[in-house]
Design a protein that fits this description.
Layout (H helix, E strand, L loop, with lengths): L15 E4 L2 E4 L1 H22 L9 E5 L6 H13 L8 E5 L6 H8 L7 E6 H10 L11 E9 L1 E6 L7 H10 L4 E5 L5 H12 L7 E5 L3 H9 L5 E5 H9 L3 E7 L25 E7 L5 H14 L3 H9 L3 E2 L4 H22 L4
Parallel strand pairs: 3-4, 3-5, 8-9
Antiparallel strand pairs: 1-2, 5-12, 6-12, 6-13, 7-10, 7-11
Helix pairs in contact: 2-10, 4-11
C-alpha cells in the first residue's frame, strides 16, 4: 500500500488515536511536552533565586558636604571599585548634618544587604561617640569593611610668625597662658582636638591657648593666613599649597614626613611622638549584620584596589595615604582612635 503524500498545502497530521470522543496524544509527544514544561520551571526557578552580590546599584552615604575629605575619598573608591563589582554603579549620596550623625544613623538603620554603605570619618566614629553622651549609636555598631586612607595633619603658623618651631610656640603658651589663640571648626572637631592633645602632651591645660571657632576646615587655614589667630592644626592637603607658597610655616606633620614637604619634621622628630596618632581617616562600613558574602566581596575589592595604580594615583592627588586593612584590623584601628578621643574628652571635661 503506497504511503500518503503530504503536499505543502496540507498540514501534517498529529500522531494520535481516537478513543470515543477523546484524543490521546502519542507517547513520544507527551514526553517532549514534559521536557519542555520541566525546562520552563527550571528557568523560572533560577530567575527567582537571589542573584550574586551585587546585582543592583550600591549607595555610598557620605556624612559631610561635597568637596570635603570624606566626599573626595568616597568618590575615588566608588569610581574605581565599580569595575571589580561587575561594573555595578556605586552612587555617592551626601547627607550632611549633626556633625555626621544623620548619615551615620541612616546607614545603621538600613537593611543589612550591602546596598547602603557608609563612608565613615574620624568625626563620626571617634570624636562624636566620645564627645556626645546622648548619641544614638556607638562606634562599634557597624560592620567594618576596610580602612581606606589616612589624611596627614599639620600644625602651622603664618610665615612671618616669630615662632619657628613647635618648641618655641609651646614655650610662649607656657610663659603667657591664654595669650595665644588658634582656629578650629568647632569644639568636637579634629582641628580642636589636635591642638588640645598637643597641649596635654606638653603638660599644658586647655586654658593655655584660646580656640576660635570657624565654619569649616578652609576657614581654619584662612584665619591663620589673615592673621586673625596665631596658629592652627589642620588636614595637611589644605595647608600644603600655602606652605609651598611661603605664606605659612609648617611646624610639624603627622604621621610621617611628606614627599611634598620633605624638610618638615614629623611629630616624633619634634619630641611629641604621640601626636602621630592625630590623623584624619576614612573607612567603609555597613549596617550591623552584613552577610559574610558581602564582607568577603569587599575584602576582595579592596585587595584589588590596593594594587590599582589609578586608585592609588587618585588617592595621592587628594593628599591621602593609602591604608587599606582587613575588617579586623580596621575595627582595631577605629577602637584605638575612639579610645584616644574618649580619654582626651574626659581629661578636658568637655563631654556633652
Amino acid at each position: 500500500m503506497p504511503y500518503p503524500v503530504i503536499t505543502a498545502s496540507e498540514p501534517a497530521p498529529v500522531p494520535c488515536a481516537r478513543t470515543s470522543d477523546r484524543l490521546i496524544m502519542h507517547p513520544g509527544r507527551i514526553a517532549a511536552m514534559k521536557r519542555l514544561v520541566l525546562a520552563l520551571i527550571a528557568t523560572y526557578a533560577c530567575s527567582a533565586l537571589p542573584q550574586g552580590y551585587p546585582s543592583k546599584p550600591i549607595s555610598f552615604v557620605i556624612p559631610f558636604a561635597a568637596g570635603g575629605d570624606s566626599d573626595l575619598s568616597g568618590r575615588n573608591v566608588a569610581q574605581h571599585a565599580s569595575k571589580y563589582l561587575n561594573n555595578v554603579p556605586i552612587v555617592p549620596v551626601n547627607r550632611s548634618g549633626a556633625s555626621g550623625a544623620i548619615a551615620t544613623m541612616a546607614v545603621k538603620n538600613a537593611p543589612p544587604d550591602g546596598y547602603t554603605l557608609l563612608v565613615a570619618r574620624i568625626a563620626t566614629h571617634a570624636i562624636l561617640p566620645a564627645l556626645e553622651s546622648k548619641l544614638q549609636y556607638k562606634w562599634n555598631e557597624f560592620t567594618m569593611l576596610s580602612l581606606i586612607e589616612l589624611n596627614p595633619y599639620m600644625c602651622f603658623v603664618r610665615s612671618d610668625s616669630p615662632f619657628r618651631t613647635a618648641a618655641e610656640l609651646l614655650s610662649e603658651m607656657r610663659k603667657n597662658p591664654g595669650k595665644l589663640d588658634f582656629s578650629t571648626s568647632g569644639v568636637g572637631t579634629s582641628q580642636n582636638m589636635a591642638v588640645q592633645y598637643l597641649m596635654v602632651l606638653a603638660g599644658l591645660t586647655k586654658d593655655h591657648a584660646v580656640g576660635i571657632h570657624y565654619k569649616g576646615g578652609g576657614e581654619v587655614t584662612a584665619a591663620v593666613l589673615a592673621g586673625q589667630v596665631h596658629f592652627a592644626c589642620n588636614n595637611a592637603p589644605t595647608v600644603i599649597p600655602q606652605v609651598k607658597a611661603n605664606a605659612l610655616r609648617a611646624l610639624f606633620v603627622t604621621p610621617a614626613r611628606l614627599a611634598e614637604l620633605p624638610d618638615v619634621p614629623n611629630a616624633a622628630e619634634v619630641g611629641y611622638s604621640d601626636m602621630n596618632k592625630i590623623v584624619g581617616w576614612t573607612a567603609l562600613m555597613g549596617p550591623p549584620g552584613l552577610s559574610k558574602e558581602v564582607v568577603d566581596k569587599w575584602v576582595e575589592v579592596f585587595a584589588r584596589l590596593a594594587r590599582d595604580p589609578e586608585w592609588q594615583l587618585g588617592n595621592a592627588r587628594l593628599g591621602g595615604i593609602a591604608a587599606i586593612r582587613s575588617p579586623a584590623e580596621t575595627e582595631q584601628f577605629v577602637r584605638e582612635q575612639y579610645e584616644l578621643y574618649n580619654q582626651l574628652v574626659t581629661s578636658l571635661g568637655i563631654r556633652q
